[in-house]
Each structure stands twice: as structure tokens, then as C-alpha cells.
Amino acid sequence: MSLVIMSETELSRLDSVRKIQEKRLSVTGAAKLHGVSRRQVHRWLLRYAADGAAGLVSKRRGKPSNRKYPRGYQNQIVELVREHYHDFGPTLACEKLLERHQLVVGKERPSDSG
């Protein structure tokens, strides 16, 4: 038996999968509980059957986000915000980056360095 590190969300999924197998929870009930489709719950059941608890752990763990900006672009944005827009809110800073520098960036993360 190997150690599996799981987030709270993944532990909750595991609990639901086990309850479904014990017939204490329906697939529809689990889907509503987690805010996902019934099809997604069926995928969890298949992955659990194939790989156990490890099958419910995100395959993206430890990998960079698909939405992450390339490092050079990110550095350019951070430099411009610090130099010209340090006292602007995120929405106005994004508007100015687009207007003056033709740089498109989401206002939720104008200087995300992670």
C-alpha cells in the first residue's frame, strides 16, 4: 500500500465514491453534492476501480497552469505596472496596458509571479 496525498476536494470525492459503492449515495446525489455532471462521477468511479484512491488525485498536480503567461511576457507586465501603474486598480491597469502598450492581460492577475 502506498501513501496518497489528497486535497480536501479529492478526499470529499473519495468519500462520495465509497458511499456510492456502499449504496448509501446515488450517482445523481454525488453529482449534485460536488456540482459536477453524472458523467463526471462515473469517470471517478472508473478511475477509482482502476487505480484506487490515487485515481482521484488530479493529474495536473505539480504542473504549471494552462493559463500561465510566459515568463518574459509576465516580467514585461510586472515591470510596466510597477513603473507606470503602481497606484492603479487592476481593471484600470489592464486597460492602460492594452491602450498604451498593446498588451492583453486578465485583470484578476496583472502581476502574478507564481
Q: What features would you describe in this structure?
A:
The chain is an all-alpha fold. The protein contains 5 helices and no strands. It has 2 domains: 8-56; 64-114. Helix 2 packs across helix 3.
Order of helices and strands: HHHHH
Instruction: Give the tally of β-strands.
Output: 0
- Over all CA atoms, what is the radius of gyration? 21 Å
Mean pLDDT: 90
Helix % is 40-55%
Classify the secondary structure makeup into a structural class.
mainly alpha
Largest sheet: none
Question: What is the strand content?
Answer: under 5%
Summarize this structure as a short list of keywords or feature phrases.
single chain, about 110 residues, mainly alpha, 2 domains, 5 helices
Topology of helices and strands:
Blueprint (H helix, E strand, L loop, with lengths): L7 H14 L5 H8 L3 H14 L19 H14 L5 H12 L13
Short description:
The protein is built from 5 helices and no strands. By secondary structure, the protein is mostly helical.
